[in-house]
Amino acid sequence: MSLNPLVQDVVSGDRLTGTLTLGQFIKSAASLLAPVLFPAFAASFLGWKTAFLIYAVISLIGALWLGLTPMKRNEPSASVSFGETFRLLKDKTILLFFLGILALVGADVGIGFTFPKILQEKFAMSLDASAPYLTVYFLAKAAGAFAGGLLLMKVKEDKFYVVSIIIALIGLAWMLLADSLISELVAVAVFGLGYANLFSIIFSLALKHAPSRSNEVSSLLIMGVAGGAVVTPVLGIVTDMFHTQNAAVVAVMVVWVFVMSLYGLVRKTSVNVN
After folding, report:
1. What gap in Å lies between CA 155 and CA 161, rounded to an integer?
2. Which residue spans within the chain are E strands per DSSP?
3. Residue pLDDT, tens place only, 146-177
4. Which sign, positive or negative, has the C-alpha torsion 13, 62, 206, 214?
5. Residue 226 confidence class, pLDDT cut points 50, 70, 90
6. pLDDT at 11 over 50
7. CA-to-CA dists, residue 86 to 215, 222, 223, angstroms
8. Cα-flanking dihedrals φ and ψ of residue 46, to 5°?
């Protein structure tokens, strides 16, 4: 396992957070296109499976482009073992940031999983009718990540973090109280805007906290995407228990309390590494 040399080059730089956030913008833009591409292909003679082929070709082009891009490297990249990577969890800062990534990805996947069902429950919509509205969430995340990628090159991570978690919390509360389709869409967009840059902030601060072990840190944190597989079944259980999709939103808010509790660590780390 090794860190992408591009990230390795900028890990100690002031622009790391902004760079990672712009990467999240590309990811969000790709997510935004998925609900559009799949129905379009499904309605054509090509079939919905063609979308997978297109994504595979795009991924291959991206991999080749990255492989052929010349990059300055300060030192040879060293391979590390799983044992060395997991030993980083003994560092309290790395452990909490890893749990933060788990929580963030879980909340992201949870909202994506739950939002169409909320529309079905509140506004008597079919799944086919509600699913396309999820693009509002992806659009908000893409816009937030693009703006954040520019702002985070100048604004301190801790200040941006606290504003972002508050905006996202407002979006979650709004989702519970919304009584119209427009209001519900605005609520999920507000959450998306607040959420958009948090992954990048935590990831970059963890790398800056231990720059000499950036390979292991990045490998460990990226495992945090498993949070989506952990949180989603929990949301399903909670929803079944209370027989309402609002219960899932409340469960995401509970996860969000942990994300908010990381502010002190984010502030301390931001001061120490910048």
Report:
1. 10
2. none
3. 888 888 878 889 999 999 999 999 999 999 99
4. negative
5. confident
6. no
7. 12, 12, 11
8. -75, -30
Closest CA to 220 of 22, 84, 17, 75: 84
The DSSP call for residue 225 is G
Residue 39 and residue 48: Cα distance in Å, rounded? 7
CA 27-176-259 angle, to 5 degrees, is 50
pLDDT-derived band at 218, boundaries 50, 70, 90: confident
pLDDT band at 215 (very low <50, low <70, confident <90, very high): confident
- Residue 171 near residue 188, CB atoms below 8 Å: yes
Residue 120 to residue 211: CA distance in whole angstroms: 47
Q: Taking a C-beta distance cutoff of 8 angstroms, is the pair 113, 251 a contact?
A: no
Q: Residue 165 is inside which H or E element, if any? A: helix 157-177
Q: HSE, CB side, 13 Å, CA atoms: give it for residue 196.
A: 35
Span 113-134, pLDDT tens digits: 899 999 999 999 988 788 888 8
153: helix, strand or coil: coil
Full-model pTM: 0.80
* Rounded distance between C-alpha atoms, residue 91 and residue 98, angstroms: 11
